[in-house]
Design brief:
By secondary structure, the chain is an alpha/beta fold. It has 13 helices and 32 strands.
């Protein structure tokens, strides 16, 4: 993740795209066609923009002007990161009801480049009239269906894993023990298979030192870390960084409260040998068959100056050297990058690797505040179409200590992003598992807007509840159609089938973070049609919404101060659970009210009578 110095860049679009703009590219982006068949459909409190997807586009930028002649500017949903979205439709709730707007859509080949905008279309968002608009959702329960993709299962993010060995206390809770328990819960309850974290080469792991000018390696701390990870049932994604002090060309260049060194190596040959020695050691300790299932990722967000003090060319050289070191142990071991912020440098790495013959087994990148872009077009452009796509960081916001991290909005956001990514990425890793996370220092209080899915003390936040609801979807995805005001853009559904169960996850969400506390004009009544289900089956509903499964609301009700007592923690756990209740239905359809933000899981099973 990102420190204070990068927050400013991540909340300023111009700064984001200009960060490394002085470095010449070795390739030219394709001149993508503007999207066609663009429509803008007005609804209560929203305008839904739709278009026909463009071949080669990683995403799309939605442009808007007020009235007929104003300048077209990107619609800002206040995510603090990129403004592009991966696919249609887009729901604009930053508009003012009753005001005329013009919209256009531009194709985006890569986050720093944008194509020509489409022709414009006009819409006037409706002024609320006191009625709740209706959305109709139909689930084809008898369809053969397809395998339901679960992009949350392959990976989750974590604080640097050396903290598994830490016996210090935060808020009266032991850091290492609780971090281990949080990761175990991700594995046992959600089914997560791997964990990605920073800083395996940070000096707190004591991996590298120079004695009388010669390199010396010590992998005992790494062994203790990975022994714990494997004992949980997880496998590590080995992010190769940061720079050991004795190997850094400029050890004064650091990031984070723990002083991670972001400098290039003083000797690329010694960096090569360090990487090779680590990988060889891992193979000897855990066996080649095991380590062949791991991924080795080169650095973290080198396209941000706060994480890499060198140039782009120096990063690409680091990638070449690192890949050679990993493959020298066994050519089947998986290497990838650029592990970049905001989908940057993906094309740069692939173009370089294609020209130099450097292997790229997977592409990794990050984004916040929007569903991940579709970088498959970049892989196809440069001849790496079979490489895996790993979003090794993703979340609702890139900023530390942001209250939205603890909100119901962030939980529903997680659902929306996972559905968007399903079937087109190999992993979407939420950043991070636990509030035991100290890039900018240890948590100052219980609810502090931390990145964790779970709190210090191990309580589930709404985002963890969202993961739990997702994990309850069945193995077969069923087709869903919708209509009505915001159907398919504001209100979405993900339906599944087991041998004896239909599960339908529905939610109401905008990407507009200014409305994270709720927006009555965006509430919708949802009619769910379920043709083909035995009318004798029983229905239950599990709800996540403001005040239900809502840790912030529960803490406010109890008057929690900076840190809850053990007794208060137990009561908070009880009060912040999701609620499951029987649901009346007529044997073919049911009706729900979905405020924004909220989500419900409807499950239908044979009667137990």
């Amino acid at each position: 993740m990102h420190d204070d110095a990068s927050v400013e860049a991540k909340t300023d679009w111009d700064a984001r795209i200009a960060l490394r703009s002085d470095e010449e590219r070795a390739f030219t982006f394709p001149d993508l066609d503007p999207p066609k068949e663009v429509t803008a459909t007005a609804g209560a409190g929203q305008v839904t923009i739709d278009w026909r997807p463009v071949d080669g586009a990683a995403g799309y930028l939605i442009l808007r002007s007020t009235g007929d002649h104003g300048p077209l500017e990107p619609v800002d949903h206040h995510s603090g990161d990129i403004l592009s979205v991966p696919a249609p439709p887009y729901v604009d709730t930053t508009c003012t009801p009753g005001t005329p707007y013009r919209y256009a859509v531009a194709s985006v080949p890569e986050v720093t480049a944008s194509g020509r905008p489409s022709s414009t279309v006009s819409a006037v968002p409706l002024v609320a009239d006191g009625t709740v608009p209706v959305v109709s959702v139909t689930v084809d329960t008898v369809a053969e269906g397809t395998e339901l993709a679960k992009p949350w299962v392959p990976m989750v993010g974590s604080e640097r894993l050396s903290q598994l060995l830490c016996t210090d206390l935060t808020g009266g809770h032991e850091i290492g023990a609780e971090l281990e328990q949080a990761l175990r819960r991700m594995h046992d309850e959600i089914g997560v298979r791997t964990v990605r974290a920073h800083a395996i080469f940070h000096d707190d792991t004591r991996v590298y030192a120079e004695v009388d000018g010669e390199p010396a390696y010590d992998f005992s701390v790494v062994d203790a870390i990975y022994d714990k990870v494997l004992a949980i049932g997880l496998r590590p994604v080995v992010e190769l960084g940061f720079m050991p002090r004795d190997l850094a060309s400029d050890p004064a260049k650091t990031v984070f409260a723990y002083g991670a060194i972001i400098s290039p190596p003083k000797s690329y040959a010694r960096w090569h040998d360090l990487v090779r020695a680590l990988v060889q050691h891992l193979v000897e300790r855990y066996g080649l068959d095991e380590v062949l299932t791991w991924d080795f990722e080169v650095w973290n967000e080198a396209n941000l100056e706060v994480f890499w003090s060198g140039t782009k060319a120096e990063y690409l050289h680091l990638y070449d050297v690192t890949a050679a070191a990993v493959k020298s142990v066994d050519p089947r071991l998986a290497i990838g990058g650029p592990s970049s912020a905001a989908a940057g440098w993906v094309d740069d790495l692939l173009a370089h690797a294609s020209a130099e013959g450097t292997p790229v087994d997977f592409v990794s990148t990050h984004t916040y505040g929007s569903p991940p872009l579709d970088v498959q077009a970049s892989l196809d452009r440069h001849g790496f179409g079979d490489a895996r796509i790993l979003w090794t960081e993703w979340g609702v916001t890139p900023t530390h200590f942001n209250p939205i991290n603890d909100s119901v909005f962030s939980g529903v956001f997680l659902m929306r992003g996972m559905k968007s990514a399903a079937g087109r990425v190999d992993a979407l890793a939420y950043w991070v598992a636990s509030d035991h996370f100290e890039e900018l220092g240890r948590p100052p209080r219980f609810l502090h807007g931390g990145f964790g899915l779970q709190t210090v003390g191990g309580l589930a936040k709404p985002r963890y509840h969202a993961m739990s609801l997702l994990s309850r979807l069945g193995p077969v995805e069923l087709p869903v159609t919708w209509s009505g005001d915001g159907g398919g853009s504001l209100v979405e559904a993900w339906a599944s089938r087991d041998d004896d169960r239909i599960a339908v996850l529905l939610w109401n969400l905008t990407l507009d973070q200014t409305k994270s506390a709720g927006a009555p004009e965006l509430s919708r009544t949802v009619h769910v049609q379920l043709p083909g289900v035995d009318p004798s089956w029983q229905a239950t509903i599990t709800t996540l919404g403001i005040g239900v499964g809502d840790l912030v609301a529960a803490a406010a009700d109890l008057g929690i101060g900076d840190w809850p007592s053990d007794e208060q923690l137990t009561e908070l756990a009880d009060r912040s659970q999701m609620v499951s209740t029987p649901l009346e239905w007529n044997g073919s359809a049911l009706e729900l009210t979905l405020p924004m933000p909220s989500a419900v899981l409807v499950e239908l099973r044979p009667s137990q009578d």
